[in-house]
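Hello Y.,

Per our agreement to keep a running log of every chain we model this quarter, I'm adding this entry. I've kept the format consistent with earlier entries: sequence first, then predicted structure.
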Amino acid sequence: MSFNFSTPITISILLIAAFNFSCSDNRLDIDVSNVQVELKIKHFEKDLFQYQSNFSPDVIQKLNAQYPNFFKAFTQNVINIGNIEHPSFPSRLNSFVLDPDINNIQKEALKLYGDFSVYEAELKNAFQYYKYYFPKKPIPEIITYISGFNYAVITDDNYLGIGLDMFLGKDYHAYPQLGYPMYKIYSMTKENLVVGAMTGWITTEFELTETQADLLTEMIHQGKILYLLDALMPQTENALKVNYTLSQLSWCENNEEQIWFYFIDNKLLYTKETQEIIKYMGEAPFTQGFPEGSPGRVGHWLGWQIVKAYMKNNPTITVQQLMQEKDAQKILNQSKYKP
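Predicted structure for the entry above:
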């Protein structure tokens, strides 16, 4: 079944969307200035690139000791040069560091992020909120790196790694050459660095464990992740959190009722068909079957609205309890969601 979707977007709507912060939700307006967080930040790319042509076994062991767990993950999984014990490992690492293209990437990243203080302050603030809501959870060490355009974020129990070369700006010349689609390039900017890093962290901290989940479960899970971003980054624009342009966000807001009834009348909520779930949850420039102007991942956005309604209608539920709740149907029922 199809519906009539609204398409006009006026300048006034865009201006409203530009200032549509999640801090309008008063329950998330928390003062965390007294929450003590010691945020450790290391710049692996600087430590790595200082060893031009000099990767002796001692240097490799030093880097491995300085970056426990991360160094092996970086070399084996990010740049894929194998085990540090392999005889050819030093020469492979040397080839990476001396590669002219990698050196150019390092220089571009240094121009943008040589002074990391602004991002450090934003990350610390986000983790102050994180510590407020989850006082028993550890705060990861932040490690920046150059990935060779492989990974924007990597995580472990103790670190949050940020690939600076994945946030060089939507006009960075190499991204189209590497085949990244424009809807992906749009979010590869310095403005997205902190929200991208925090999304990566909480996504691995709060994973969907259910196998063969239906679309509703997937939607509610992603809605919980976005609501947690609301809680951790209350001053951040909604468009950044959901990785939409302002016009895409406005399209969803203008068509909320039509989107909801499209899902209901087409009996989509409980489908477990992989292709159907991907259609509404996967990365894409638009949602298949929806009119021009629609963004991809519309299921994420809809799940977010349901979770926000759930938290509004259940004021005694804490953020921690929300993230622990596994019953998507319960969240939908108790949200009384009605756009």
